[in-house]
Every structure is written in C-alpha cells, then in structure tokens.
Amino acid sequence: MAEKDINLKQVLKRFPPGDRWQPVDKEQPVFSSLTEGIEWVFQNTEERDYVIKAAEGKVLYIMRMKYQNLNPNHQNGIIYTENTNNL
Question: What does DSSP assign to residue 49?
C-alpha cells in the first residue's frame, strides 16, 4: 500500500492594491482575481487542492508525494513483532 506525505508549495502571492495576484517566482502575469490566479496554477500544474492564507496574501497547493513501503514483509497496523529469535 502506498503512503502519502503532504507538503505545501506557495504558488501565488497577493499583489496590492485590491484582489490582484501573481506567481511567486515571476513578475508576470498579474491576475485580476484569485479565481483567475488559481485557474492559471491549475492549467500549469493540474493540482486541485489549495490552502489560502488570506491574511498573509498567499496561495499554496498541496503536493502529495507517494512512497512505497520499503520492507516487503511489513504487516500494516503492527509496529512491534513478537519475533524474539534475534535477542
């Protein structure tokens, strides 16, 4: 079973005055609304989940990174085993 780590990456910052937004790593384009900015992010990344920190003027998207269990003998839900052969 694949597990997921969640990381946030800032993609937009507010560009005052008003409800204008721009990418964090570029000066252009400047979007006239939050909706326009999020649509631009979606078109470039296909990410659909966002965190909006309105007071900070930030939009972040949620990066979900999958990883596989490294131990093929791992049993889900069991942290400790009863194997005492190695003691």
Answer: -
> Over the stretch 50-74, which tens digit does the pLDDT of each residue have?
999 999 999 999 886 655 555 555 4
- Residue 1 to residue 16: CA distance in whole angstroms: 45
Q: Which domain holds residue 15?
A: 8-67
- Residue 14 in any domain: the answer is yes
Please check whether residue 10 is in contact with residue 60, taking contact to mean a CB–CB distance below 8 angstroms.
yes
Report which secondary-structure segment, H or E, holds 37.
Answer: helix 34-45
Domain assignment present for 84 = no
How far is CA 4 from each of CA 12, 38, 40, 69, rounded to the nearest angstrom? Answer: 24, 24, 26, 11
Number of separate domains in the chain: 1
The torsion angles phi and psi of 45, rounded to 5 degrees, stand at: -125, -20
